[in-house]
Amino acid sequence: MFKGLEKVFDIIGEILAVVLVIVFALLILDANFHFLPDTVLNIFTVIKEYGALILIAVVGCEAMSKRNFLFQIIFLALVALIVIFLFFPGTYDNLIHLIK
Q1: What angle separates helix 6-33 from helix 38-64, to the nearest 10 degrees?
Q2: Membrane-spanning residues where (predicted)?
Q3: CB count, 10 Å around CB of 9?
Q4: Dihedral sign (CA 14, 42, 84, 96)
């Protein structure tokens, strides 16, 4: 499924990693010196929170491009599960109550 996209995922993963390092460094510096405006701080906070998930998904897709189709489907299902529970926290509670 991802055979031809391995290099693309590699480049995107590298760019995301550099961007996340810069954002984390700026947020740490801003915690001490308070030089970022509130709007930029809010944007960097969102990038910090969701950037790690995006980086995990991209690097995981790169790793799964070397695996067979079954592992790719399992990985994508797990990423989808994380995204669903992240954006819809009530879904997790409903699932737990359904199991109990």
Answers
A1: 150
A2: 12-29, 41-61, 68-88
A3: 19
A4: positive
Per the structure, the complete domain to which residue 44 belongs is given by 3-99
SS3 65: coil
Q: Which of 49, 47, 51 is nearest to 39 (CA)?
A: 47
- Structure tokens, 40: 């930029």
Distance between CA atoms of residues 19 and 15, nearest Å = 6
Q: How many domains does the chain have?
A: 1
- What residues contact 92, with CB distance under 8 A and at least 6 apart? 85
- Residue 39: exposure state from Cβ atoms within 10 A (0-12, 13-18, ≥19): exposed
- How many Å is the Cα radius of gyration of the chain? 17
Q: Report the alpha-carbon angle 8-12-18, nearest 5.
A: 150
Question: What's the DSSP call for residue 66?
Answer: T
pTM summary value: 0.78
